[in-house]
Amino acid sequence: MKALVFLGPRNIEIKELPLPAINKDEILLKVKFAGICGTDVRIYNGTKAIKAPRIIGHEFSGEIVELGEGIKNFSIGERVTVYPMLSCGICYACKEGRTNICVDRLTIGYEIDGGFAQYIKIPAAFVNGGNVIKLPDNISFQEAAASEPVAAALNGINRAKLEPGQYLAVVGCGPIGLSHVQLGKHLKVNVIAVEPQPEKRELALKMGAKYVLDPQTENLTEKIFEITDKKGVDSLLLDVGIPRVIEQSLQLVKKGGSFILFAGCPHGSTITIDPNWIHYREIDFTGASASTPENHRQILDMVSNGQISIKRLITDELPFTQWETGFNQKQNFTGLKTILNIEEAD
After folding, report:
1. What is residue 346's predicted lDDT score, i.e. its pLDDT?
2. Would you say 232 and 253 are in contact if contact means Cβ atoms under 8 Å apart?
3. Is the whole model's pTM more than 0.90, yes or no?
């Protein structure tokens, strides 16, 4: 099979490798499509450290082509995706029900071989942990390959604890931000999308934002306080990993509101904020990271039921051999979601 192998920083190649051999409790998946994530680009650049050599890629979909004799709940030919992170179940975070931030988690594409390959072995622990998710009939392999980050977006918006009629600011309208826009609309909140690129502001309106603001030409504080009757937003989701934007966005949140930092910033980033803005206004300043297999299933159900769209987030589909073009698109914020057609490896 062909696989995209990380050999070291700035050194990734498509290589010919043997098909993985599975044991009695494992599944062999023929990969159809795989999504490119910002973390894949960070691995390539060396800013996220993983051991080499490693087949990378943690967002993928495919068809089951071989089952171990101990597998009872799946069949050859079934269409699936895989939630790529396995929690340990015994650390303090897992015992507190926060499995998404497990301190000893195992992730496909990081610690074990990933989905940028024509075939992938799904280890028994992932099968037994409920990480292999059957696809509804009306969800394409393309949509499924792009579904994992949308599940993470669901975790983020859940932490906002929104009520219908409230105001949500979504800062940054990439694929995650636009997922938050759609989820906010589904929750019947008033979404204010903040985005400098006009085409993404237009998409935000089409996906459910009630208001769109350009941070380069408009005074966000004045506009948002005008929209919210001088209170500020109930919750703000920060979907762009730029420290100065964190500093600028905090003042948009009302007294008693919540600020959810979703996007990762470059390693070693710092921010400078007035702590009194949090203290005297009782603002909940928190983060959101990753998700769970349950979140992933819920997103697929929502897509199947027409409540949100993943298809509208996919702007580029490239042959496997054009992975480098896809990585450059991600790094340069070109388009929204780029997926690789793994079947076109030949």
Report:
1. 63
2. yes
3. yes
